[in-house]
Amino acid sequence: MKRLILAAAATAALATAGLAEEMKMAVTTSFHNSGLAEVLLPEIKKDLNLDVHLLVVGTGQAIRLGEAGDVDAILVHSKNAEEAFLAAGHGTHRREIMYNDFVFIGPKEDAASIADAEDAAEALKRIANAEASFVSRGDDSGTHKKELNLWASAGLNTEAFGPWYRAVGAGMGAALNTASGMDGYIMSDRASWLNFGNKGGLALLFAGDPVLFNQYAFIPVNPQMHSHVKDGLATRLEEWLVSDKAKMLINTYMINGEALFVFNAEQ
User: How many CB atoms lie within 10 A of CB 5?
Assistant: First the structure.
């Protein structure tokens, strides 16, 4: 009997030793919709024996989850909001990982003629002047924050817009579905657009303005603010995210031959 008990205990110890560690990370819907997580997470599990549970939300909500200590790290794309998060002591530091760009999507016939606009501001002015249907995320995400900033830079106030401007309060995939259904214009991150399967009559009409640059950054939640957060696991994950293997996986992740992200972490 004693031998059986010892054998059972040894078996349990080995099973426990083999269990993956777990942490939680809040990520943007645009990152999740890109499909890159499905490439990275299995490799993280294999290399680190670490299960990273994603909470998929907009950047604003991701930051609030970090402030509450409900996650161990965040991966977001709104630099001003990230710097405010750090300044308030909620994060330990900010590490840039990768970037892509924002693009303007719209009906192929392009009634507002944004395809030949000189810059993003002119493209938005043309949409507003035409009062063409435009779908906004309206969810305090990084994409939504950027969109509002671009309207303001063009000298336009979204609060004064008519019913042609529709804020849906949804993630990138749902917002793109709405735009597809109503044949409207929308601003999207390039990765979500490339991975979007319900394009309908929509097309990528405008891109390339430097103001549409879209940087993603990793921020561990500060354990001095929330002693329960798993800062050690966040550190291990960060080290993996800036590794040569992560660089290769990120840079070679493509859809129809087009890269969705460019790795730019300092190693």
Answer: 9
Let me know if 56 is exposed, middle or buried by CB neighbors in 10 A (0-12, 13-18, 19+). Answer: middle
Q: Where are the alpha helices (DSSP H) in 88-196?
A: 120-130, 142-153, 172-182, 190-194
Positive or negative CA dihedral for 148, 28, 231, 215?
negative
pLDDT tens, position by position, 207-244 = 999 999 999 999 999 999 999 999 999 999 999 999 99
pTM more than 0.90 = no
Distance CA 177, CA 174 (A): 5
Helices 142-153 and 59-68 cross at an angle (nearest 10°) of 130
d(CA 82, CA 97): 14
Strand partners, 98: 216, 263
CA distance 212 to 249: 24
Any bridge partners for residue 215, and if so which? 99
Buried b (16+ CB within 10 A) or exposed e, 133-152: bbbbbbbbbbbbbbbbebbe
pLDDT of residue 18: 66
**CA triple 63-67-69, angle to 5 deg:** 115
